[in-house]
Amino acid sequence: MTPEEFRVAGHALIDWIADHRARVPELPVAAQVRPGEVRAALPSTAPESPEDFAAVLADLDRVVVPGVTQTQHPGFYGWFPSNASLASVLGDIASGGVGALGITWQSAPALTEVEQVVTDWLRDLCGLSPEWKGAIQDTASTACLVAMLAARERASGGSEHRGGLQALDAPLIAYTSPHAHSSVPKAVLLAGYGADNLRYVDVDPVTYAMDPEALRRAMAADVAAGRVPAVVVAAVGTTGTTAMDPVRAIVDVAREHGAWVHVDAAMAGSAMLLPEMRHLFDGADDADSISWNPHKWMGTVLDTSLLYVRDVDHLVSVMSTTPSYLRAGTDDEVVQYKDWGIPLGRRFRALKLWFHLRLDGVEAIRERLRRDLENARWLAEQVEAERGWRVLAPVSLQTVCLVHEPEGLTGDALDAHTLAWMDAANATGRVFLGASQLDGRWMVRVSVGAEATERADVEELWALLREVVATTR
Ligand code: PLP
């Protein structure tokens, strides 16, 4: 494709994106395909000769759009907000267009330095102190794995040693909440701690936040048995209920044993942009690493996960490689992001954040987050005030966990009712909700925060929920 051909196709693509976004509210929210349907709609071999761009665009409408859950829809309340602000979409296109090779500072100095600038901007916007340095990872799962590796090396004798799993005879122990995201146990396993060395610390039965005294007891028991407390992952905004583990108390306990504290704020971290919500993150500034995903609630299109660490030298000494073919004369003067994580090559993801922040502006982003917090509070109030409905967990941010309990219905029958009314609501195509288990029973999670969701949409949701429970009994 020549630049001139690209110009024509590119204009058509931008028109397609703009038209698509304008009509998202008219589409059913859930993906409309059966397993295998998308594959079956496509040829089994690649084209030998070029096709018309119009045919490719037509297939976006015919095959791709029905095969996508419309997370940009005002009725999307599933999993977590997965906003893809159009400003950041432009940054994504620019990132591909620049065509930079991000392997070292020398291969694309702008890629490194724009990333330094935007991660510093976001650190300051979140009220974290300047000692924190950040890099963009693909996801919070990767960020957690990087933190687990850094913690492992610190606990096993210091980074210069690079002793890895074999460095100590005593097992290294990791601690987290039973409500932590599944990426936490995965990272713990991948970093080699072993499933038997992961402790799920008790949580408060009402708030579902980690009990720091239980953490203290668990660590003391491990030390008494000759094991080494190495790392705690504080779930700040758990996936199920958005419970906020008390970071300050966790840091205090962890410090007694020199354990690393990683704060997983993948979804909730966007709330740090709001000064009035920062009390929920109290103590995070004293942790060792923090990750959060602008690609969730804040709305920079996937994949832009931030990982901040306090001790960059330690991270670099764990992750660095110095092959001769990457050597350059400026190596001593520059940041080499290849040494801050796992991959060598990196995309110019910083452009997505840069475009998003510059084109939308921070104040508009903050206002949207505040709107979502108020909408979630409003919904929770309606649910609490309505007979037969219950909010199951504190609404610390924008997630409302609820259940409808008709008189006399308990146990498995209540679970069946919960899943049935949620499925019925989703089948209307007007909303998309998710279910999850809490204390062994099913509940429905309403995760408010799609960029397009206004109060009127939440009011419509609440009316719909009352309708569907009446018809699914
Ligand atoms: N941590 C928490 C608290 C989450 O809610 C999620 C996603 O739902 C993740 C981690 C994983 O995020 P990612 O998809 O960026 O790996």
From TrEMBL:
Modified residues annotated as N6-(pyridoxal phosphate)lysine in this record: K296
Keyword ATP-binding: no
GO terms under biological process: amino acid metabolic process; carboxylic acid metabolic process
Cofactors: pyridoxal 5'-phosphate
GO molecular function annotation: aromatic-L-amino-acid decarboxylase activity; pyridoxal phosphate binding
UniProt keyword terms in alphabetical order: Decarboxylase, Lyase, Pyridoxal phosphate
Transmembrane segments: none
Gene3D superfamilies: Aspartate Aminotransferase, domain 1 (3.90.1150.10), dopa decarboxylase, N-terminal domain (1.20.1340.10), Type I PLP-dependent aspartate aminotransferase-like (Major domain) (3.40.640.10)
Domain of life: Bacteria
A GO CC annotation given for this chain: cytoplasm
Keyword Lyase belongs to the record: yes
Family: Belongs to the group II decarboxylase family.
Name listed for the protein in its UniProt record: Aromatic-L-amino-acid decarboxylase
The species this protein was found in: Phycicoccus duodecadis
